[in-house]
């Protein structure tokens, strides 16, 4: 296995910049997810590792090798595609063994290796079948087996689970997690599904408009989102975000918004210097950090009941404020939550997030500077 490094990498297509000044390192044995919406540059980034796209500027390194202009076949990488890309006229054994065939391995050696990998992936009994004779989940494992059959420095995954139904995706996700722990492979995985990224990654690179806006372990991305974009993209339901007016008084921060009542907040010295009374900020609260409350309390937000969704072990309660903004709470309960009319939701100061007018996170006193 090997590390992957991007040294100030930019990729342009004519006047359009798909990836801008990328400078991250993926460690040896790490499983890194490139996460973001369509068009954010994550697949272009993956293709530059594979050698299917050439950077407009900067360097791509695999280990100590500069592979920026190296042919894909010389990079010691394997890739799993979104559509599996299996050859319909070959049985599974030949599909899996194909990378060994193009490298000149004998039929005996490549079929023995194909069976070895297929057995690991629980498809050894299907090797004589054609791709059209197996399920989507089995096709996905066949594509994965083909990637693993030849030892590689880096394994690349381009949304490999997106064509599977919900149950198979869950099963395949668990299998990939198990495989990563067993093999310790260096993997780069493209997805727009934040649940996949949270479940699989050792670190997540959240991308927006060609820029990595946060690169951190999953729990850090979830608990300390660097921007409002990350806060809104990671989480299901996403973080509630509310525009508020900041007021500084007696060294404390007071927040004002319709229907909002908050206790004075202590902020770090760095944040206090950046704040002025009357500035617009954004308050963020995760749905699981909201609970039903009565009126008149501090750290509450009130509005009319918009939706009350029973999800089994939890209920999603959404209120709508006078300005049509909505707040959703995740209430963990086995009972049906009976609500109507005006609803008040409460939260702890320890679980709020603040973002400045640029959408960047502001540190609070309950967090480290």
Automatic annotation (TrEMBL):
CDD domains (UniProt xref): ABC_MalK_N
Record Pfam families: ABC_tran (PF00005), OB_MalK (PF17912)
UniProtKB keywords: ATP-binding, Cell membrane, Membrane, Nucleotide-binding, Translocase, Transport
Domain ABC transporter: 4-234
InterPro entries associated with the record: AAA+_ATPase (IPR003593), ABC_transporter-like_ATP-bd (IPR003439), ABC_transpr_MalK-like (IPR015855), ABC_transpr_MalK/UgpC-like (IPR047641), Mo/tungstate-bd_C_term_dom (IPR008995), NA-bd_OB-fold (IPR012340), OB_MalK-like (IPR040582), P-loop_NTPase (IPR027417)
Domain of life: Bacteria
Protein name in the entry: ABC transporter ATP-binding protein
Lineage of the organism: Bacteria, Pseudomonadati, Pseudomonadota, Alphaproteobacteria, Hyphomicrobiales
